[in-house]
Amino acid sequence: MIKKTTQHNIVPANKTALLLTGGGARAAYQVGVLKAIATKLPRNCPSPFGIINGTSAGAINATAVASYASCFHLGVKKLEWVWKNFSTKQVYHSDFRHVFGHILTNMLSSFQSDHLNHPPASLLDNQPLRSYLKSIMELKRIDKNIANGYLRALSVTASSYSSGESVAFYQAKDSVPWKRAKRCGEQSQINIEHLMASSAIPMVFPSIKINQAYFGDGSIHQLSPLSPPIHLGANKIFIIGVDQPTDNKYLGFQPHYPGISSIAGHLLDTIFSDTLHSDIERLERVNRTVSLLPARDKHQELKRVETFVINPSKNFNAIACEHYDKMPLAIKMILRLIGVKAHSESSLTSYLLFEKSYTRHLIEIGYQDGLNQLDEILEFLDIKCK
């Protein structure tokens, strides 16, 4: 490992992108990886990522990092404090009155006329998250960081229930909106509603209205997760995913049909992980094609983009089982109704367990994974320590 010294030289990284994927409470892992990178940077060093992109819970982390692009170390430290002190009640109502009252309201509204404006249907009410984000986010800093050259662009991806498109809301000085099949980029002033929309896990949290359209979790329609950073000018993309290694005990023969909870967990795993793998494969094919073209034949829009992906080394489902008892009783009862128990095969718990004992565990895993690959990460980011 490279020895830490007091003299650092960071090559300007205004076209190096950070991509943070979705995953509910699993996004705590991303903070640990960022913390590992910060160990090699001086305390007043700007972010090594000029383009920052996030989806779902990763959008919240991305926006926090972008807000402190002028001081990467401080931004990561503040983000770590938030995740290390999380509780479920800061994300969604978890007491009996609110939980069952919310479900009853949804049930009653289903009997009302379709012409009435019903409240958004969802299993849980995440209104506390909106209030919490308003209290901790410093969104005004984003424009200042862009103006001062510390940040090139920030994008937050959400899925439109109205059009079926993946919409990347981005904040930048001089980027051009784009339109492709089932996806587009829309220049916006990123606010709390964009973050709420991007992190609205389908069926779990309510949809959010932005500009007369309704949006949900950014991972739903995201067929090309790499599209926003590439359109915003990235030539390198550092990706922190939450795609966990498969536990062998869940493979092979099953003596019974998969339950609702197991199927729901598989659906969330697919939404948050599968499209990224296929998009990276497509990018690798494009890179190979570009390398074979003579310089005179290379089109302006066809360029080589390098990627580096880091994913958890531990299975989050097993870790969530260890911390299951920390969940509020009302939430455990709701999950029990759909078959989620302490040692259930479902991955639902790993997405909804916003308790500090669990998030601290994931931060530590991310930190160790980051340290284990730190030499490769520094080389990819072109960070040199002398």
TrEMBL record:
This is NTE family protein. The keyword Thylakoid does not apply. SUPFAM superfamilies: FabD/lysophospholipase-like (SSF52151). It comes from the Bacteria. A motif (GXSXG) lies at residues 54-58. The keyword S-adenosyl-L-methionine does not apply. Residues 18-230 form the PNPLA domain. The active site is at 56 (nucleophile), 217 (proton acceptor). One of its GO terms (molecular function) is hydrolase activity. One of its GO terms (biological process) is lipid catabolic process. Keywords: Hydrolase, Lipid degradation, Lipid metabolism. It holds the Pfam family Patatin. The lineage of its organism: Bacteria, Pseudomonadati, Pseudomonadota, Gammaproteobacteria, Alteromonadales. InterPro entries: Acyl_Trfase/lysoPLipase, NTE, PNPLA_dom.
